[in-house]
Q: What sequence folds into this?
């Protein structure tokens, strides 16, 4: 049951262009119509007056011909004055009614038919002029107007109106383009920056200045808001990083803690499993270490010395590791090194040798005396000694313990005296 | 100076029109078909002429033997003015008191003598028997079959001391 697809939202440019077009077309239509109507009214009024004047002139001209009783002269007089444009028909009538002479405009085109239809509307009543001789009416001139002039005016007004509407279309296009440049492009900038912030977290982006005061103010406010957001974001990021570091690192030695070790070991195992076909990431090794007789150090020299020993061992392990992030303090005096793959027996031996050399460096106890830490190591290799972080750690621990037992059993009893 | 040759002008009276306005023959004494048209034309000429001192009734003097003047005493003028017909002898001395002089069939010199005598004295002169309009009369009637036209002598009109409506000039027969 999929509903009807929502139509795409109209853009501001479309809205503005449409609003402008409607407004201008409406204004033009209004102006054209009022001009047309008032023009027709004025022209009709003038034409009516003109017709009345012509009727009176014809009446005056044909009066002697009527008195002399000369129909040819009546016709001639009528024609000489009246046969001008804007007249459809002239009649000279007797007072009794019969038409003595008449003249009709000769035109039978399509235009003439339209004109005649318009004539009936515009000139329903003819203009009349009484033919008076010595105060006595002896006839009447009737003139029927012609709408040719009015129609020509209306036609030209319509053409001008259409031309104006055409110009308006072009003008609104230009206007819409200018509006787009001035208003919509800055808004688009804002939208692009907002998108960048949202998707890319790029808080350093800023909206460029715009050419319109309101839009520019909006852009500036947006930039200020962005600045505040950036401040908050940076603070949060720093705090988060600090919290994350605190959660995964040992505060005393600065090494990663057990949780971090487990996470990184799991990730290394996952990588190794995925990349099983090649030997690029496997095998890798876990090296377990603890400080020999750490409890006695604490007991004999105090916790401060124990802490100093932990810090010293941590520094040396970190310095000996392939890179500084793969040394961890698992808890108490237990340390672990994650040796990234691929690593062979020679590589592991190189690391343990480096550790042994580093541990030759004495460290200073709070009491001022120098001491040399002694550390037991055990190694487990993935996947031979285990396929999980815990198993690897257990394996390494077992090896270390075995090693510790062996070295203790092999060691001279007096060697113990070198211990701090 | 205006050309001395009389401008011969005319007006055509369509028989139908004349028949409608003025029934011809049967009612006419002597059966002259032109008489009503002559009366109408003379009346119109009088109507479109202005005298310096309008008289009522106007005295219409008929000099010489007039063939178509039968209806002249029935002429009705605009404004209800009357016309008094007076037969006069064809001599200049007999013309005193005439406002209109209707010249009958007189020899051309006699006609000229009469028109010359009233020149400038405010007398409207109409010649009946002078189709070429050489009598120095202001208006000359031209009888055509079933139609009456007239010519006019612009020179004579300008010297007559009368004012003739210029619209009448348009009605005169063109040369």
A:
């Amino acid at each position: 049951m999929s509903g009807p697809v929502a139509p795409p939202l109209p853009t501001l440019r479309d809205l503005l262009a449409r609003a402008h077009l409607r407004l201008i077309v409406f204004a033009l239509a209004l102006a054209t119509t009022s001009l047309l109507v008032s023009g027709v009214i004025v022209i009709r009024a003038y034409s009516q007056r003109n017709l009345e004047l012509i009727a009176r002139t014809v009446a005056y001209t044909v009066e002697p011909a009527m008195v002399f009783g000369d129909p040819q002269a009546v016709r001639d007089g009528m024609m000489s004055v009246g046969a001008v444009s804007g007249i459809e028909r002239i009649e000279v009538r007797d007072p009794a009614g019969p038409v003595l002479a008449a003249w009709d405009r000769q035109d039978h085109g399509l235009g003439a038919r339209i004109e005649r239809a318009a004539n009936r509307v515009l000139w329903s009543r003819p203009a009349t002029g009484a033919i008076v001789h010595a105060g006595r009416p002896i006839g009447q001139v009737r003139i029927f107007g012609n709408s040719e002039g009015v129609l020509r005016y209306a036609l030209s007004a319509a053409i001008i109106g259409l031309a104006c509407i055409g110009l308006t279309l072009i003008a609104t296009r230009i206007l819409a383009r200018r509006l787009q440049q001035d208003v919509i492009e800055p808004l688009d900038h804002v939208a692009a920056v907002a998108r960048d912030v949202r998707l890319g977290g790029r808080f350093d982006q800023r909206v460029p200045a715009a050419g319109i005061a309101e839009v520019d103010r909006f852009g500036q406010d947006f930039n200020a808001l962005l600045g505040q957001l950036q401040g908050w974001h940076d603070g949060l990021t720093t705090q988060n990083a600090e919290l994350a570091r605190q959660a995964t690192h040992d505060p005393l030695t600065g090494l990663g803690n057990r949780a971090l070790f487990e996470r990184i070991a799991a990730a290394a195992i996952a990588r190794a499993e995925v990349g099983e076909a090649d030997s690029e990431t496997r095998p890798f090794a876990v090296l377990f270490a603890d400080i020999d007789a750490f409890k006695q150090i604490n007991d004999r020299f105090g916790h401060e010395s124990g802490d100093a020993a932990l810090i010293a061992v941590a520094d040396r392990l970190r310095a000996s590791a392939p890179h500084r992030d793969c040394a961890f303090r698992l808890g108490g005096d237990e340390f672990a090194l994650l040796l990234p793959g691929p690593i062979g027996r020679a590589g592991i031996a190189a690391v343990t040798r480096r550790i042994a050399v580093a541990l030759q460096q004495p460290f200073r106890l709070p009491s001022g005396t120098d001491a040399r830490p002694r550390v037991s190591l055990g190694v487990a290799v993935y996947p031979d000694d285990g396929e999980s972080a815990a198993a690897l750690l257990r394996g390494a621990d077992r090896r270390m313990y075995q090693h510790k037992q062996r070295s203790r059993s092999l060691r001279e009893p007096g060697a113990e005296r070198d211990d701090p | 100076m205006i050309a001395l040759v009389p401008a011969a002008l005319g007006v055509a009276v369509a028989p139908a029109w004349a028949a409608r306005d003025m029934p011809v023959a049967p009612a006419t004494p002597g059966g002259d078909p032109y008489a009503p048209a002559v009366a109408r034309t003379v009346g119109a000429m009088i109507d479109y002429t202005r005298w310096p001192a309008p008289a009522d009734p106007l005295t219409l003097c008929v000099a010489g033997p007039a063939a178509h003047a039968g209806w002249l005493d029935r002429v009705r003028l605009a404004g209800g003015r009357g016309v008094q017909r007076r037969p006069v002898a064809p001599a200049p001395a007999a013309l005193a008191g005439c406002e209109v002089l209707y010249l009958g069939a007189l020899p051309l010199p006699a006609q000229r003598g009469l028109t010359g005598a009233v020149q400038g004295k405010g007398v409207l002169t109409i010649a009946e028997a002078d189709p070429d309009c050489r009598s120095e009369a202001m208006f000359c009637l031209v009888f055509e079959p079933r139609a009456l036209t007239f010519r006019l002598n612009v020179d004579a009109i300008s010297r007559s001391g009368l004012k003739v409506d210029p619209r009448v000039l348009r009605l005169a027969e063109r040369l």
